[in-house]
Structures are given as structure tokens and as C-alpha cells.
Amino acid sequence: MSDEKTAAPPQTIDKAQYGLAAVLALVGVYTIVDARGLNVGFGDPVGPRVFPYVIGTLMVLLAVLLAIATARGDVPQAEEGEDVDLTTPPDWATVGKLVAILVLNILLVNVLGWAITGALLFAGCAWALGSRTLVRDLVVGVILSVASWYFFYSGLGVPLSPGLLDGVL
Amino acid sequence: MDTLNLLLDGFASALTLENLAYASIGVLLGTFVGVLPGIGPAMALALLLPVTYGLDATQALIMFAGIYYGGMYGGSTTSILLNTPGESASVMTAIEGNKMAKKGRAAQALATAAIGSFVAGTIGTLLVAFFTPTIATWAVEIGAPTYFAIMLLAMVLVSSVLGASKLRGFIALAIGLTIGLVGLDASTAQARLTGGSLELADGIDIVVVAVGVFAIGEALWTAAHLRRRPIDVIPVGRPFMGRADWSRSWAPWLRGTALGFPFGALPAGGAETPTFLSYITERKLARRRGGADEFGEGAIEGVAGPEAANNASAAGMFVPLLALGLPVTATASILLAAMQKYGIVPGPTLMTDQPDLIWTLLASLLIGNTLLLVINLPLAPVWAKLLRIPRPQLYAGILFFACLGAYSVGQSAFDLAMLLLFGGLGFAIRRFGIPVLPLILAVILGPLMEVKMREALDLSGGDVSGLFNEPLAIFVYALVVLAALSPLLIARFRPPMLHEQHDQHRDQEVS
Fold first, then answer.
1. Which residues contact B410 (CB under 8 A, 6 or more apart)?
2. Containing domain of residue B292, as a range?
């Protein structure tokens, strides 16, 4: 951790990192517990357990190291990007809306069909991200989803679920 | 001259009208997606994989080649015109490239990037054609212990050498290895980490992992921190270079190629290191020449060198992928997964089993590279317009295509749920500064590594010595130790100024 930048004010502790360490430790322990239930057959000197044991142990070890580093004031360098502005606090409302739209798509895609949910997905995400041209977004969404449905159906021979529009498309 | 004949045969089978059409579509789609902010070549490839499902293996490979080079070029266009590179390999290009663009020399910057990429890609692909068969014949001889050691080396290198934090590199590795465990154990067919779910028995598709972590994660992360002020895109005309630009560019192109290729072929994290080294080299050489040193104000050498290094390392990546079946970058991992879908198993036997396929692939890489130049120089102004797509629609589109890709794999809503789950993981690793490359690499290398480990230990009856009983394996282990220790030594001896500058750019997404 020698080359970590700790120029930020001293004694900043990123508490969320404790949460991450806890999740990682849980995953590691679960990996080990899960591997205990595996059978090692006759004449199989290694078996399917060794690799998960090693990975689970590594994970728990790293979780402990992360917790220690966090306590010592280690802060992560969150990722930057073209459209990312790290100076503002995270906008959880937008993220929540996007996740809700994605979950709706998961629940409805087999019922309504891709041609409908895909269009709603596009328009909904654009709306959640701040677009206020709802009608235009819906039109673009419909074009995208219907075109992609036909592209996969006739171009690639992959029938995406037609849903409600079975027979119409 | 055997290689040359084989390559010519490859051209003969690649150069049909139909295949050229697939290569052109690949280049166009790849550039289109690569130009979009926040999307690197690895993500472009993962997003566009479903498009190739209906094709046969050869045509699919030709299209991959186009997508791959197109995605790389698209990334450099973004970094020159926007100054905020979408992937770590373009970081160095952005430094001088954006300064050139601001001085009204965007056309020259794009031209030297495109032509440099072409030169480096062509030389690199030819080197792949000449090296791969040799390495493959030699690789047939090496056994499971050495393979295991080489994979261990690749993992330790990408986790510890790259990125600002070694701890986070290894955390990424462990997460990836855990994801790789999910599914039926290869030799005893017992379910691991599936929680009893039948859908997970086949394991988790790398495409779902990659698209989730890259695309959904990126969109969610950006949504949480969306820049609300207008973006500043520099307008550009048709790229061209004057006589002076040519004479200043050709040497950096060749030096960049020489640096990029070996780094790409080694498991050292792809283009990040060679582009950095190329930038430093060009700057030093410019200082030594004295006189009009433009570095810091838009020097064309600073674009030409790193761009060539970037593409040469992208070509170099094919050597371990084809000869050893060993992916060393996220892009290579996705290519490997794509090839596996077509029943192609990269590795030493591939050169002898399916030589036609390999030579066609290499020929199509050369064709794709040429098409890139022919198509993209005139189209640069169009690509620049793409950067102006309003952000809500842009990210809505990324989410749309990500869901479409995951859904088309098996028309199952379960895959979409997995996609969202990995999107959440992608968000978390961006929040906590955990690098992407070790994670993706571990998902695909983990299962391969376990197979080799068990092969080696089965032979020795479970004795640990089975992992050490080849001299070459011991040599590679020595390299692993060296790799783990060398960053500490370099950190001590590297001039502090360079150190700081490099670190500033290190935490970017690795694609």
C-alpha cells in the first residue's frame, strides 16, 4: 500500500470499506463451507475441494487486510471517466430509478416480449437520466427494440420472446 | 517462407466479397461503439458478440477482428477530442492529442493516430504470424505444471504490477476466481457455489460478467455522478498530415511498435505500460534534440508513439492467446470465450488442428486493419458527432444494448437478473477503486488453472511436488516471486517525478 495516495485529510476513514470487507469475508467463508459438501472420489488425489478452499481462504485473508488498511486511513480512488464528476455526492435517486427499470424489464420481458420491454427500457432509462423528451425517446426506443427483434429473428435466426405481439411481428 | 505461403492461403480464404463485408461491418460497428464515451475495446467486443451468433466460425472471427481494431481506434478518437480517455491504453494519447486538438490540429492528431495504428497493427500481426507457430511447437512440449505456473504468473502480474493498490488488485482477482468457481466441477460434475440453482450449473457466461461489470456498472456509476455541465467536443474535419507531420511521426510509430509488441505478448496487462514507456521515450528524445520541443503543448510524437504502442500490444496479445490458449488482457479473455463458443480451443494444438482458421484469422486482422484506415479517415467527422449524443440517451442506449446482448444469449430473464447483479458488482468496484482487468482475467483463467493443477497433481498422486517437477515451471515460479517483489524495488528507484505522473493515470479503467 506504499504507493497509495493518502494526501486527503488524515484520519478520513471510508466506513463503507468495512462493509465491503465484511461482504468479501462472507463470500470467502461461504465458498469454503460450500466446498466442504463436495465428495472426493476414489483415486482422485486432489478432488474438487482444494481450489475453492484456496480461493475462499485467499478471500477471507484479503478481507482482513482490507479492514486493517481501512482502519489505517486507506481510502479508495474511485474511478473517473468522461462523464463522471466525482466532486458531487452520488445521486442515489437516479441509480435507484435505473435499477427499478432494469428489474421491471427482467420481470416483464417474457410476458410482454422484447419489442415492448426494450422500448420501455430505453425510454425509461433516458427519463431516469434526466431526458425530458419522453415522446421522442419512446419513438427511438420502439425503433430500436423492433429493429433489434427483427435483426435477431431474420438476421441471426434467434427468436427473442415475442410476448404480447406474438403473431403481430 | 512457409509462413508466408500459409498467410497467403489465409488471404485467399478471407478475401471473399462476403467476408470483406463482414470485416467492414465489424470495423464500422467496432468504431461506432468504441467512440462512445466510457466504452473501451473489451466492452465493445462483449457488447457486439451476440451480433456474430448466426455466423460460422470463420466469418465470426473476421468480424471480431474488425470490431477489435475498430474499438481500439474509436477509443483514441474519444481521448483526442474529449481529453478524457475511456480506457487506460488511451491515457497517454490524450495528453498530447487533446492539446493538439485544442490548437486546431485535431485533424493531424487523428491522422497520426490512425496511420500509426495501421503501421503498428500490420507489423504486429505479421510478427504474430511468424512467432505463433514457433511458440506453439515449443508449447506442445510443456506440461501441466508449467502451464499452471504461467497462469499464476499472469495473475500475479496483472494484480500487482498494475493499478495504484496491490491489495485491490488481488481482491479483484479473488472475486473473479470465485465467479469462475460457479457451476459444475469439470471432472466430478458436482455443483459448486450454485446454491442449488440449475441455471447456474453451466457456470456464468463470461459475456454476462463482462457486459454487466463493464456496461451496466459503467452506466450506473456514471448515473450516480453524471456531469451536469455541457461537454466540450472539439470539431474536426477530415484527418490529414503535412510533410512535417509525416517526418515527425514515422520514427515514433516504429519505436512505439517495438515497445508495444513484446509487452502485449507478455502477461503484463496489455497496453498500459508500453504506451507510458513510449510517451516517456518520445519526450526524452524530443528534449535531447532540443530546439522546438512541443511536449506539453501538443507534440505529434506524443500521439504517434503511444498509439502505435497501443495497437502493437493489441496484436502481441494474440501470441499467448493462440499459441498457449492464455489470455493476458480483458479483450483476450472475451475473444477466448467467443472462440470457445464456436468449439475452437486455443492452445498449442490449435495451430496443427485448425491451421486454416488461424491463418484466416491473421489475414483478416490485416484486412481489418487496412479497412480501418480506409473507412475511418473519411468518417472521422461523423464519429466526432457521436460524442455529442445527449448523455441520457447515450447511457439509455448502452443499457438497452447490454440487456439485449445478455438476453439474446439464452432468451432467459435469469441472464438479465445475473446481468443486473454483475452491474451492481461493477458499480461497487468502481466505487472502491478495484481494477477490472484482474477480475475478468480470473473468471476465465481460474477454471483453466484448476484443470492444469489437477492434471499435474493427479500425475504425482496428490503430492505437491507435482507442481514443481518441471525445470521450466520452477523458472516461471522464480519470475512470479520476482514480479511480486519488483514493484517495491522500482518504486524505490524510479525518479519521483515520473512516479507521480504515472500514478495519476493509473486508476483508470483497464480494458
1. none
2. 2-506
Taking CA–CA distances from A106, the nearest residue in chain B reads B413
- Residue B387 CA, chain-centre distance (Å), reads 22
Which of B387, B310, B314, B339 shows the shortest CA–CA distance to B63?
B339
Domain count, chain A: 2
Which of B228, B404, B463 to probe the A interface (max A CBs under 10 A)? B404
Q: What value of ipTM does the predicted structure carry?
A: 0.88
Sign of the dihedral through C-alpha B355, B62, B43, B281: positive
Which residue is it, cell 437478473?
Answer: B417
Spatial distance between the Cα atoms of B418 and A58, rounded to a whole number of angstroms: 24
pLDDT reading at A32 higher than 90: yes
Q: Which of A35, A50, A81 is the last residue of a domain?
A: A81
A102, B416: Cβ pair inside 8 Å?
yes
Q: What is the DSSP string of B359-371?
A: HHHHHHHHHHHHH
The DSSP line for B416-439 is HHHHHHHHHHHHHHHHTT--SHHH
Residue B511 lies in a domain: no
Any CB–CB contact under 8 A between A111 and chain B?
no
pLDDT single digits (tens) B164-195:
688 999 999 999 999 999 988 877 888 888 88
B394-397 contact pairs (CB < 8 A, 24+): B394/B36, B394/B37, B395/A83, B395/A125, B395/A129, B395/B219, B395/B222, B395/B223, B396/A121, B396/A122, B396/A123, B396/A124, B396/A125, B396/A126, B396/A129, B396/A131, B396/A137, B397/A122, B397/A144
In sequence order, what are the residues at sequence separation of 6 or more whose Cβ sits closer than 8 angstroms to the Cβ of residue B404? A114, A118, A148, B50
Residues 177-196 of B with CB under 8 A from A: 177-178, 181, 185, 187-188, 190, 192-193
Choosing from A81, A112, A127, the residue where a domain stops is A81
Which residues have CB under 8 Å from B331's CB, separation 6+? B41, B42, B45, B68, B270, B314, B317, B511
C-alpha cell at B21: 463485408
Specify whether A123 is located in the same domain as A75: no
Nearest to B147 by CA among B320, B334, B354: B320
Q: Does residue A2 have a pLDDT over 80?
A: no
Q: Give the per-residue pLDDT at A11.
A: 60
Asked if the structure places residue A86 within a domain, the reply is no
Same domain, A101 and A76: no
Given a cut of 50, is residue B507 above it in pLDDT? no
In B251-336, beta strands by DSSP E: none
Contact assessment for residue B282 and residue B95, using Cβ atoms and an 8 Å cutoff: no
Residue A6 pLDDT exceeds 50: no
Query: Could you tell me the three cell numbers for B460?
Result: 504425482
Q: 3-class DSSP state for residue B233?
A: coil
Domain count for chain B:
1
Alpha-carbon gap, residue A136 to A124, rounded angstroms: 12
Q: Would B17 be classed as within a structural domain?
A: yes
Supply the mean pLDDT for chain B: 83
Helix B437-459 to helix A50-71 angle (10° resolution) is 140
Which residues constitute the domain of residue A139? 92-165
Q: How close A80 gets to chain B, by Cα (Å)?
A: 7
